[in-house]
Amino acid sequence: MKILVSRLAVAAALSLCISASPALAEAAPAPAAAPTAAQADAFIAAAEKESYDYVTEASRIQWVNNTFITEDTDALAAQSGAKGTEMAVRFALEAAKYKDVPGLSFDTKRKLDMLRNGIVLPAPTKPGAATELNEIATRLQSSYGKGKGTLDGKVLNGSDIEAEMGELTHTPAEYQEMWTSWHDNVGKPMKADYVRLAEIANAGARELGFADTGAMWRSGYDMAPDDFAKLTETLWQQVKPLYDSLHCYVRGKLNEKYGDAVQAKTGPIRADLLGNMWAQEWGNIYPLVAPKGAGDLGYDVGDLLKAQGFVSTSPSEMDPAKRGFWEKKMFKYGEGFFSSIGFAPLPDTFWTRTQFIAPRDREVICHASAWDVDQKDDLRIKMCTKVNSDDFTTIHHELGHNYYQRAYNKLSPLYLNGANDGFHEAIGDSIALSITPQYLVDIKLLDPAKVPSADKDIGLLLRQAMDKVAFLPFGLLIDRWRWGVFDGSIKPADYNKAWTDMRLKYQGIVPPVARPDDAFDPGAKFHIPGNTPYTRYFLARILQFQFYEAACKIAGWKGPLHRCSYYGNKAVGEKLNAMLAMGASKPWPDALQVYTGSREISGKAMLTYFAPLKKWLDQQNKGKSCGW
Ligand code: ASP
Ligand code: SER
Ligand code: ZN
Q1: Which residues, including other chains, have CB under 8 Å from residue 372's CB and lie 6 or more apart?
Q2: For a tag site, which of 135, 150, 318, 628 has the least CB within 10 Å?
Q3: What pLDDT is recorded for position 34?
Q4: For residue 286, with 0-12 CB atoms within 10 Å meaning exposed, 13-18 middle and 19 or more buried, which class applies?
């Protein structure tokens, strides 16, 4: 994820930053009658100034809270968040007064819309509401950060347990213990807070003229909110057959590995057997599903790093020079890719201010995020990196945010954002798609003799599909659940049941054990207590293939799409930068067109990429009864 100040754990979250000193905002009050376009311009200028100043200050506070969770930093973060919420709501109400003024410029109109729509968690203007909302939001996020689970009775923090879920060395009983302890310890205590948070945010959304908070979230895509919901459904239907084929194949392999008692041949898959705490990406269990012989890949990026001596910092390592040494080197590979296509190196401060690994002696939010604290060039990442393949990809993901942030840093404050939030999430991922065997040779991680030959293409594609295709229904359902919570169709008493039902409906997975009535499993996934809208990741999963396909075309690549790496290609970098530098200044189809030539988001590039695999999976699945 990326952290935009306001939407940082902060309830305030404008879709961008927002700030303005109250005095300045009041300098341009909307007149009681017939406001003019010039007054609207003055209001925007004041709001941008106030929001910009607020965001830099709030980012610093959030950074300290995220990297040093205590009662005091929680209190400071909640206070700052409340200030941001109140400011954002004030701007939204003010912006509404100007929306129909004749003669508004394109930019003023666009910025007024942003101010009206862009609050992740709005609060009503009632005194105390913003404070209560931000106290809850901070408490939820910090509880997640401090969350623990167990393995063989030993207590593990979030990043450690996530890494263990990705190891193939455990028994089903151990996966079950990790899954259950994490969901019980982290999720369950959050329920009452989440109920209250939804109530307050909904009251805030209604005051701003939206039906509920979910409707507000759907309004940030340069189209009618209902059309956006329809678009996500159309995209899902386009890619769903690919997911269904993968699900069927993987279920069969898990049955072969574990036997009927653990994983039946039919029905849903047990959620804890897929190599990931949330069953959202399955790449870690690739060795269990790898095609025998011809398609087997023969390498794993994490193992390649380990073979070069990379090793995760031991929690007990005391020498500051050694702590994070290898993890930092992993980031150098990411920077190297961006440099090779023409982006300037990261600022020196990136290397001194980034949190590369979990600190030894304090609680932090380990979930990875990218920041631009001064909204200019104070780029940083906060991660609890491990030497493994997941984190190698996540590094590229996070760096994508940082390079995007820098590319648009000259724009006016309200445009300091992605074309939409899905774009922001897709940039780094589209770079990571270029981590091909040949690229690994180029950066000297893979022995040229070990490059998988063309007959291993199915293995390469399957490895990617385990992460990319497996994610699609997960990326969709998180917000379908929240949309339901916010619009009232999912009642507090049914929060967990609705969650489990949706996990079954979309992903075809079930918890390893029946869930207790008071469970709150959604809380065990960062973005729920962190209040980060999630449809962005669904969009990004699709967009990244469009970006990648476009880049490969610019690079003149002729072979199979998944073998293309545009490492070193300056023409790609130039075109990519042209899109990134637009920030949020134009509707997203304009940005998409600049890089890809198309104005439509579509699953076609993803389907093209995986076409040979789809055919192969369907052959493997012949005679099986697929579905659940
Ligand atoms: N950036 C990822 C996400 O957006 C972080 C991760 O993969 O852990 O939340
Ligand atoms: N980074 C997002 C997550 O961790 C999407 O992959 O959920
Ligand atoms: Zn991200």
Answers
A1: 59, 378, 379, 380, 402, 405, 406, 409
A2: 318
A3: 84
A4: buried
The residues spanned by each domain of the chain are 298-451+534-597
* Type of residue found at 209: G
Other CB atoms within a 10 A radius of the CB of residue 134 amount to: 28
401 has binding-site annotation: yes
Q: For residues 189 and 143, is the Cβ–Cβ distance under 8 A?
A: yes
Residue 26 pLDDT > 60: no
Contacts 24+ apart (CB under 8 A), 219-223: 219/117, 220/15, 220/117, 220/118, 220/420, 220/421, 221/420, 221/588, 222/420, 222/587, 222/588, 222/589
Mean pLDDT of the chain: 94
Residue 474, ligand 2, Cβ within 6 A: no
| Model confidence band, residue 297 (pLDDT cutoffs 50, 70, 90) | confident
The percent of residues in the chain predicted with pLDDT above 70, rounded, is: 95
Is the pLDDT at 9 greater than 60? The verdict is no
DSSP per position, 397-414: HHHHHHHHHHHTTTS-GG
Sort strands 509-510 and 269-270 into parallel, antiparallel or unpaired: parallel
Does the annotation flag 541 for ligand binding? Answer: no
Q: State residue 299's pLDDT score.
A: 82
Question: What is the rounded CA–CA span in Å between residue 1 and residue 424?
Answer: 9
Atom of ligand 2 nearest to the CA of 281: 6
How, if at all, do strands 148-151 and 154-157 pair? antiparallel
Decide if pLDDT at 231 tops 90.
Answer: yes
Rounded to the nearest angstrom, the distance between the alpha carbon of 7 and the centre of ligand 3 is: 13
| CA–CA dist 536, 573 (Å, integer) | 23
- Following CA atoms 30, 35, 36, 41 in sequence, which dihedral angle do they give, to the nearest 10 degrees? 20
| Cα dist from 295 to 286, 455, 516, whole Å | 12, 6, 42
Nearest CA to ligand 1 atom 8: 368
Radius of gyration of the CA atoms of the chain, in A = 24
**CA atoms of 134 and 85, how far apart (whole Å):** 8
Higher pLDDT, 296 or 375: 375
For residues 219 and 205, give the distance between their C-alpha atoms in angstroms, rounded to a whole number: 12
* 523 and 194 Cβ atoms separated by less than 8 Å: yes
pLDDT for the residue 20: 31
CB 605 within 8 A of CB 597: no
Total length of the chain:
628
Cβ(43) – ligand 2 distance below 6 Å: no
Least confident of 11-20, 305-314, 331-340, 440-449: 11-20
Question: What six digits make up the tokens of 33?
Answer: 């009658």
